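pipeline/complex-builder :: batch 7 item 3
reading input block
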Amino acid sequence: MNQEIKEQLSAAGMNMEGALSRLMNNEMLLERLLIKFKADTNIAGLEKALEEQQYEEAFHFAHTLKGVAGNLGLEKLMDAVGIVVEKLRSQTHEGIEGDMEVVREAYAQLMEVLKQIG
Amino acid sequence: MNRQKILVVDDVESNRLILAEIFCEDYQVLEAADTKTALQILEKDTDNIAVVLLDWHLSGEDGGKVLESMRKKGWMDHIPTLVVTAEQSIETERKCIGLGAADMIRKPFDKDVVRKRVENNVSLYEHKNHMEEKVQEQNQLLRKQYSVMKAQAEKIKKSSQQMIDIICNILEHHYPEFDEKPQAVREISRIIGRKVQAHYPEYKLSDEDVESIAELASLRDIGKLLISDHVLFKPAKLTKEEREYMKSHTTKGCEIMGMMKSIQSPEHHKRSMEICRYHHERYDGKGYPEGLKGDEIPISAQIVSVVDAYHALISERIYKRAYSKEDAYYMVLGGECGIFSPKIMECFRMSRKEIEEIGSKERKGKV
């Protein structure tokens, strides 16, 4: 990962320092995990479950996604998913589509940067 | 540290990799993506796993299942489980702790916090496991010492018994008047004692009581050691004074037993004193030395007294021949050699066959 990509990731809402610290400053591992994240199916699962109104399943996907995002320091995505998680937990589905829009935007922004690696 | 492995249970690979990265320096990291694999690993490596890090939201299942299985298998007592979750809610925390989780780790991790939490729990459980081992060791030691003590108590009891046997043997050598067969007196006392125990619970005789009465019966005449030989072995009839003097062998017996107090247990000592002092008392109150009546006479002395009368009849003495067992039996029952309580007489009657069998066995033994 070069400096330029790191800066782009920071701009996409990633806490690079925090993520590296969790990984004992192992930059190689972080890169591997980010590449893995590109193939993460939780976002797709979440979309599908919401569409089918399988809210319990949706909660699980959202929750996992939040965890993964958090571990990788993808804070903007984590915060956006967090709102969805809480709504699903309390079973208030009002305005959830709007919240998902924020999630999608953060996700797309990250993917735009990540397609340059791996 | 003897447990050197850490088990990470999480269905998301990146989460496992992150934790593995944090702990790979200090531990061998085992990974499981689902409950089944986790339990298999635990089964195989129970004694080597220092700590389990468990994701609460395993896909399809609940981390609670792992906790429950661990509890059922008894692993939870030795392996701390830290639940990893992105949940902030107090409910989840309550549930995890309630199911036996040792601690919680919140996602996203802070590596220092995770390390410290794991380290704390591992050292706590290490200490706990160590203490349990120690307690077990101590228990074993105690059991061992207890058995040594029991053996010693047994030995002391035996040697006090041997002491009494030796005294009886010396008595026998010097004074043929005494029992030539202390064994027979012991046996007869035991037989009658058991009958009293079985049929007259009011005397509250335990197995040990019966045994001690049987053992100590041979000491009843030990006071005769302090009686002058010219009276003890006088081939003619005793004068009135000499008879009174002879009777003092009961109280003199207590003087001798008093000297042996320290080698006997308190119960044995008390019983020896009873037997020496009261084995010539009579049920009707006309015995000596105190003229006790009925059940004022200790049960031990009542038993020994009938044994003494019977045994004197079947033995040869300076002044008389030995009677046959049959004659002796009827003479005791007929009240020719003392008055005994009806209960003791009943027990004596019931014991006849057993008592006569001792003799026959002995005779066979001698042939």
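note: The interface with chain B takes residues 18, 21-24, 26, 29, 32-33, 36-37, 60, 63-64, 66-68, 70-73, 78, 85, 89 of chain A (CB under 8 Å).
queue -> next item
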